[in-house]
Structure formats: C-alpha cells, structure tokens
Design brief:
Chain lengths: 462, 181
C-alpha cells in the first residue's frame, strides 16, 4: 500500500519530508487524511501506555483508559488476579459497557441489552438469554467476549498494550531504552517497580494536533528559556526549594539529545560513564523530606557501587517512547489524539511507595503546582502548543515547512546505546528520529516491514 | 404590610451578615475581573486552604469516590496563600504566555447561602460562572459552586480561610486555568 495524501494530488507521504534541508511539511500536522492514516498505521500497531498497576490493586478493580481515540477498560480479574485490557464497546451494539472512570466490579453489564461480561472479558449473560422466544441455539458464545488487546505487558508496574498481534515484545519495542524506562520506574533507592502513582489521571484537552506536544516537544531543549520565562521571572523555577541547594561533588555526566531512528524513541538524556550516583543535594522546602531522599540516595549509591546508571538518569532530562509517551524520573505524560486539531493530555506522577506521608505530600503538592492546565510551568507550554495549530493550518501557512534541521548531520552513533544517534543536547535529533520512525509506520504494510530492524531495513532517513 | 419595628434584632443581624458576605464575595470577583490580583490576595487568610478537587464519573452511591482527596490524590488546586501569591507574581511578569495578552474575565457569583455561623467564622456556599474571552475568539467557561469558610476581619471585613471549589467538569476542557474562583 502506498500511503498517500488524497486531497493533495496523491502525493506520497515521503515527499512531505525534506531530508536534505531538514524540514517537514506542515500538512503532516494539519491534514485530516494524515490523521486518519496515523490512527490506523500507528495507534493500531504501537505499544501504548495504559496506566499503572497501583491504580487497580484489588480483584475487580478497574480504570478506564484510552488507546488513541478509543477507550479501554483495564481490569484486574477477580479469579486469577491478572490485569487485562478490553475495548470499551459492547460486542452486541457497540454501547460503552463502562461509563465510570474507575471502580470495582463483579461484572460489566451493558446498559442497552444487558450483555454482561466478567472481569476476564468473557460474555457471561445476555438479556433474555433464557427466554423461550429469544436466542435459543443462536445465543452468543465465548467468541463474543469483549475485544481484548492483542498483547499486554506489566513492565515493573507500568501497563502497556498493543492491538497488533505481530508487534514485537515490549522489551524489543523499547530496544536500548528498556533499561532507561526500568530505571524511571524505580523508587529513589533504586528498587525495581518501587513507585506508586498518585491517582487519578490528570486529563485535559488541547486544541492542537497530537504531534505538536507528542513529537515536537518531547524533548525540546531549546524551548525552556523563552516558554518558561515567566516562571523564572517570578522565582518559581526553584519552587520545590532547589534554591537552597549547595552544589555537591560534581559527578561526571553528559547531556545529549538522542534519537533511535529505527525505533522512534529518544529525548534529552544524561549519560553516566562510571559507577555510582551523583551526591544528593538538598532541594525541598518541607521539613524532613531531604532527610528521606538523602537516606534513599545513600542506599541507591550502594546498589550502584559497581554499576553505571542507565542513560537518562534520575532527574536528568526526559525521553519519549514512540509514539508519544514522555517519561522522566517521576512523571509519565502522554497524548490521546481525538481529531486532527484536538488532543487529550494525560499525566501520572509517581512517588516511592514506601515513602512516609510527609514525603508523599511534598512530592504531590509539587507535581500539582507544576503540571498541566493549573501548573506554573506547563500552562506556558499549553499556550504555545495550542496556537501552533491555528497559525499553521491556513491555506498559505500550510504550504510552509517546519524547520527540524537543528544539528542535522552532526549526530553520531554511540557504543553506550547501540543503534541510537547521539547529538548536542540542544539539537533536534530526537524529533528527527521520531519522524524517521513515523514515516516507516506510515509506509509499512505490517510489522514485517518494521521489525526486526537490520541493515536492509534501516529506517533512518536523515 | 411588614412593619420594620416588628423585625427582631437576631433576624436583622442575619440579613446584615448576608448582605456583608455577599458584598465581600462580589468584591472578590470584581478585583479578579479588574486584574487587581494583589488586592484580591489581601482578602485571603494566611492559613488559607484553596482546593479544587477533580471529579470522577462514578457509580451511583460511590459518592466517596467522586472527589479527589486533598490528603492523597491529585487535585486541580490544593494549595495555600503562598502558592497563589506565586501564581499572581507569574501572571504579573507580563511574559506568562497563556495570560499575555491578558484575558477578559467575568466572574458572576450567585446563590449565596449562609450555612453556619460559629463565633467569628461563617460558612457560606455560593455558585460561580466564570467567562473567559481572550485574543480574538478564544472562549473558556467554568461553572461550579464553592464551600467557603470566612472569618471576620477588622481591616477587610472578612478573610477567606477555606475554599472548596466544586467544578462541573471531569476532563478539564479549557487548555489552561488561569484565573481564580
């Protein structure tokens, strides 16, 4: 299948990216044909983030999450205690079988005709199921259970799924970023899966294309000084208490913009070249919080006495998992497209599950005032992301290209992360890598064209 | 026809208190709309708890799940006067992009209901409609109610000690919340 932009003279998708100049046509952000194809070619195939196991600790607990434009029910089964994910659409007439954000259920009963599913998604009853004048031998059987995701993964507490049975394993999908994600899901003392998430999801709408925040801004090293100028001017950039920090012993580390052109992941990441962890520096206003984190940092230092931290590191930049999950040391922020010009942004913030209450409270208050539409910092992002869209979609404006050439041609492969291109910290290497992968997805007939990546299938386009 | 002389003192005091509380809430709204944010800050008690929980879609009867907890969960606002002062400093930098150029806000307050008086402290419920008009055609609106605790104050008549803001939304539909309720 040749992926085309129907309304523009059947141009191939590839022709909208100029690899030599480092530019991308604005059409890719504003054209509804592109959006429709993205939903099919990308969101039906990729591993997508659903939530965290700490949100549904008990049998029967469920949350409603999203995969792209659609809702999924994420539920812990009452019998085998396993977590599964199902499309929130009754198999009979397509009604939402669950219209709650979260809860605990014995079964999910559709409010239309009472088709009823257990917490493993199995159809266990239908309205009039035993009525002599109804179904009889046409009563729907096991094949009429809720539509279940093709693959599901609980990765150190974080929950992921894909609709594509041919997608590679989640670890293969992450590739060299497996260790980075694992590290971000550790508690501050280095314990695997040591986080719990503050409930619920923070959810809000942004009237822009999903790629504006999801691709361009993850990670955007050059935006902070201007976008977040007000936070700095108002003295809020140190609002956790970082202003009182005394510099510790410098720990050798380097910050780069990195991008995996074959897998699409990348960001602004910290590399560590020797075992150990940086000294803890006090940075909290609230009493007792630094004491806690100093102690956990000490335990982590012992754990890493002979180990080198995974690239990314604690608190050193953030990276994105393709297509649009942004991860750093205690936050996961990701994007659910609704339509070409509307995206819903979700945030989950974590904290050490074993931390005392005063520590959890300090972290919670910090993330509440930092993130989202009521956050000091991110409110400035929202304004910029929003108005990109109306200012790019006009008949004249859309004929222009976006500049993605910052650092083009200067990226190098690096042994520390095989296959990943490493470039200056303030370049756009990560964004270019996402578009290399984006193009591969948009052109691929199936996962056979996407994985495994080898020399004959190197998707790097620039 | 009601003779004023037949109104007892307690009823009269209650009417006057209702009037004073309404005037206080209206003034608050006017200061916000007239962009006199630092003057609005002066109406807040030092120990203010300003709280806007998120609201879940929940099964009938699961009412304890509807509002997010300010003890353990994520809220839209859950803060004190110091954080609100920081927000106002940020707006007043002139480079806080979602409020530059500044918005046209109109806060409409109604349904003011005194629900309890204890010494100097007054519990009062009210409703708000907040309309935001920005740039050429950006419109956002928030509707909800508030459960306030006011304390009598010699300088400003009252100070706001606690405010729970019950917003009629689930997913936050406006991209930024850049005013106060």
């Amino acid at each position: 299948m040749v992926t085309i932009l129907r309304a523009r003279g059947d141009r191939s998708i590839r022709s909208f990216i100029d690899y030599e100049r480092g530019t991308i046509s604005r059409e890719l952000y504003v054209h509804p044909d592109i959006f429709e194809q993205e939903m099919e070619q990308i969101f039906q195939r990729c591993w997508l983030f659903l939530g965290h196991e700490s949100q549904i600790p008990n049998p029967g607990d469920f949350i409603v999450s999203r995969m792209g434009t659609e809702e999924v029910i994420v539920v812990r089964d009452r019998k085998d205690k396993q977590i599964r994910a199902f499309l929130n659409s009754c198999r009979h007439r397509g009604m939402k079988v669950c219209r709650y954000d979260q809860g605990n259920n014995l079964v999910f009963t559709c409010p239309f005709h009472a088709w009823t599913y257990d917490t493993a998604g199995k159809l266990v009853g239908v309205g009039y199921g035993n009525h002599p004048e109804a179904y009889g031998d046409t009563r729907p059987g096991d094949q009429w259970g809720l539509a279940q995701v093709a693959q599901f993964k609980n990765f150190h507490g974080s929950l992921w799924a894909t609709w594509d049975p041919k997608a590679p394993s989640f670890e293969d999908y992450l590739g060299p970023f497996t260790a980075s994600l694992r590290h971000c899901l550790q508690s501050s003392d280095g314990e695997d899966g040591g986080l719990e998430m503050f409930t619920p999801f923070q959810r809000h709408r942004l009237p822009t294309n999903w790629k504006v925040p999801g691709f361009t801004s993850v990670t955007d090293g050059t935006h902070a000084a201007m976008t977040h100028r007000s936070a700095a001017a108002a003295g809020l950039h140190e609002d956790r208490g970082q202003g009182k920090a005394k510099p510790g012993t410098p720990f050798p580390r380097e910050m780069y913009a990195i991008g995996d052109h074959n897998l699409g992941h990348g960001g602004q990441c910290t590399f560590y070249n020797q075992p150990g962890v940086p000294d803890y520096t006090d940075e909290w206003f609230e009493p007792g919080v630094d004491d806690y984190f100093r102690e956990t940092a000490g335990r982590k230092a012992q754990l890493y006495a002979n180990r080198v931290l995974a690239p990314h590191g604690w608190g050193g930049g953030h990276f994105a998992i393709f297509p649009c999950v942004m991860v750093d040391s205690w936050r996961i922020r990701w994007y659910h497209p609704h339509e070409t010009g509307m995206v819903e942004r979700w945030t989950l913030c974590g904290v050490d599950k074993n931390a005392p209450k005063h520590v959890k409270n300090a972290v919670r208050h910090y993330v509440q005032r930092y993130n989202g539409p009521t956050g000091f910092f991110e409110s400035d992002d929202m304004e910029n992301w929003n108005y990109v869209y109306p200012a790019s979609r006009g008949v004249r404006a859309r004929k222009l290209d976006y500049f993605f050439a910052n650092g083009l041609g200067h990226g190098k492969y690096d042994d520390r992360l095989p296959g990943v291109v490493v470039n200056g910290a303030y370049t756009e290497e990560a964004q270019r890598a996402r578009f290399s992968r984006w193009l591969a997805f948009m052109e691929a007939k199936s996962w056979d064209d996407l994985y495994p990546v080898n020399t004959s299938k190197n998707h790097r386009i620039w | 026809m009601l003779e004023l002389t037949t109104v007892d003192t307690a009823s009269l005091q209650r009417v006057i208190l209702q009037h004073d509380v309404e005037q206080f809430l209206y003034k608050e709204a006017r200061l916000l709309d007239e962009r006199r944010l630092e003057e609005w800050l002066e109406l807040l008690a030092e120990e203010l708890h300003y709280w806007m929980p998120m609201r879940r879609n929940i099964k009938f009867g699961d009412w304890d799940l509807e509002f997010t907890s300010h003890e353990t969960e994520i809220n839209w606002f859950d803060e004190g006067k110091d954080v609100l002062a920081g927000r106002i400093r940020q707006i007043n930098t002139g480079v806080h992009w979602p409020e530059e150029p500044v918005s046209r806000f109109e806060h409409i307050i109604s349904n003011v209901e005194l629900v309890g008086v204890e010494g100097d402290e007054i519990s009062v419920n009210s409703k708000f409609f907040c309309y935001q008009n920005r740039l050429q055609d950006e419109v956002n609106q928030w509707v909800g109610r508030r459960e306030d605790l006011l304390r009598r104050d010699p300088a400003t008549k009252f100070k706001l000690v606690k405010r729970k803001i019950i917003l009629a939304q689930n997913v936050m539909l406006p991209k930024v919340v850049n005013t106060f309720f």
